[in-house]
Write a structure and sequence with these properties.
Layout (H helix, E strand, L loop, with lengths): L1 H10 L3 H6 L8 H34 L15 H30 L7 E8 L2 E10 L9 E5 L16 E5 L4 E7 L4 E5 L4 E5 L5 E5 L5 E7 L11 E7 L1 H14 L8
Parallel strand pairs: 1-5, 4-10
Antiparallel strand pairs: 1-2, 2-3, 5-8, 6-7, 6-9, 9-10
Helix pairs in contact: 3-4
């Protein structure tokens, strides 16, 4: 209880931050489900804790030793023993149901996503390809719109970093195809509330539906070598109109020499 009171005091007026229980603000529909499951787990844990602590306090206060006479025993009390057995099964069953339901939704792949992005991890940067958007006249070896960056350079301000940029549209289903050309990496955007490994010779997939615009920094969360900490990328969620304009600009740039970093 002391920790709970401390958390309330330190969060001040930021009630939404307190109710998120340490999780970032979700920017996808899948992230909202993850947050709801996280909050539900805390509620279940508190309910169980209150019952357990209440039972302990009840025993301490009302059944403390008052003499040498033993209190009434409950061994072989069939209703209580059934309760002890059935109640945990019910609790586990309820938690399993909601976990399985939400996991199925979060990991579900759409039959026809609005946008597909191929994510290629490498030591120590990222490459993003948009296979739905061609650059047929490109002489650069990139037949589709491709974004390639460099790893984070210490000492450079953010506006001078050449991190790869991932741009996706709001309110459209985006499927990511993840693969690596060297070692195991992991693709993580914190407000997605979700991450997935990027594995050589294997394609991992997941899909999200963004619900808010903004810019964030994504990173690799699998130790992948000396410069693992610099393996960052920028992500922008924009309106569909802004995304279309950005794609057209990329197509125009990537049909001329020097169009891809």
């Amino acid at each position: 209880m002391l920790l709970a009171c401390l958390a309330i005091v330190t969060t001040g007026c930021q009630s939404t931050a307190f109710t998120r229980l340490g999780m970032p603000v979700p920017v996808t529909k899948q992230g909202q489900v993850t947050l709801a499951m996280w909050q539900g787990s805390w509620i279940a844990a508190w309910c169980v804790g209150i019952v357990v602590w209440g039972g302990i306090l009840w025993a301490i206060i009302f059944h403390r030793k008052r003499g040498d006479q033993l209190p009434r025993q409950v061994r072989y009390n069939l209703p209580i023993e059934i309760l002890y057995t059935v109640l945990p099964f019910i609790m586990v069953g309820v938690m399993f149901y909601f976990t399985a339901r939400d996991e199925d939704y979060i990991t579900r792949l759409p039959a026809h996503p609005d946008l597909t992005v191929n994510v290629i991890g490498m030591q120590w940067t990222w490459q993003f390809q948009y296979p739905h958007y061609k650059t047929p006249n490109s002489s650069l070896g990139y037949p589709v719109v491709t974004e390639v960056g460099q790893m984070w350079q210490p000492g450079l301000p953010m506006n001078q970093q050449h991190l790869p940029l991932l741009v996706i549209p709001e309110h459209e289903t985006v499927e990511f195809n993840l693969t690596s050309i060297d070692v195991i990496h992991s693709f993580w955007v914190p407000p997605f509330e979700f991450k997935r490994d990027v594995i050589p010779d294997f394609t991992n997939r997941f899909a999200v539906t963004p619900i808010a615009t903004g810019s964030w920094i994504g990173n690799c969360t699998e130790l992948c070598g000396v410069y693992h900490s610099r393996m960052l990328f920028r992500i922008k969620i924009v309106t569909p109109a802004q995304f279309t304009a950005w794609i057209h600009k990329q197509q125009a740039q990537q049909t001329t020499p020097g169009g891809v970093r």
